[in-house]
Specification:
Blueprint (H helix, E strand, L loop, with lengths): L1 E8 L15 H16 L4 H6 L6 E8 L8 E9 L6 E9 L4 E10 L13 H8 L2
Antiparallel strand pairs: 1-3, 2-5, 3-4, 4-5
Length: 133
C-alpha cells in the first residue's frame, strides 16, 4: 500500500476561541492528504474528472485521539488502498510534527462515478497508480 506524507500548519481560522482545532477541520485535512497523494502520483482530481471519473466520499471515519492547536505543524499521512473492490479507500493518520504525537486516525471510502453519475468500478489506471510504490 502506497503511503504519502504532507505537512500542514494549523491557522487561526482552523481553531476555536481556545486555540483548539475545530473537529470538522480534520476532514478537510484528510482531503488535503488525498489531493497531495494524487499530485505526488502525477495525477490531480481535475485530471481524473477530465477522464470522466468522479470520486465522491461514500463513507468517512475519524477517531480523535488528541487535539491540534493553533500554529501546530501537522503531518498528514495518507495511504491509498485500491484493493477494496468497489471503492477506493484512503487511510489517514494526522500527527503533530514537534513530538510525533498521533492526533487523529481515520479513513474515507470513495465511490467511483462515470460522467452520467452511474457507479462503476474504479478504472484500471487508478488501481495501477495506487499499487505502484
Amino acid at each position: 500500500m502506497l503511503t504519502h506524507r504532507t505537512s500542514y500548519r494549523v491557522i487561526y481560522g482552523d481553531t476555536d476561541k481556545m486555540g483548539v482545532a475545530y473537529h470538522a477541520n480534520y476532514l478537510r485535512w484528510f482531503e488535503i492528504g488525498r489531493a497531495e497523494t494524487f499530485r505526488f502520483l502525477g495525477l490531480t482530481y481535475k485530471a481524473i474528472e477530465e477522464q470522466g471519473f468522479f470520486l465522491p466520499v461514500s463513507e468517512v471515519h475519524c477517531k480523535y485521539i488528541a487535539s491540534a492547536h493553533y500554529d501546530d505543524l501537522l503531518t498528514i499521512e495518507t495511504s491509498a488502498d485500491a484493493t477494496v473492490r468497489a471503492v477506493i479507500k484512503f487511510d489517514y493518520r494526522i500527527l503533530r510534527e514537534a513530538d510525533e504525537k498521533l492526533l487523529v486516525e481515520g479513513y474515507t471510502k470513495h465511490a467511483c462515478l462515470d460522467r452520467n453519475g452511474k457507479v462503476v468500478r474504479p478504472p484500471k489506471f487508478l488501481k495501477d497508480m495506487f499499487n505502484r510504490e
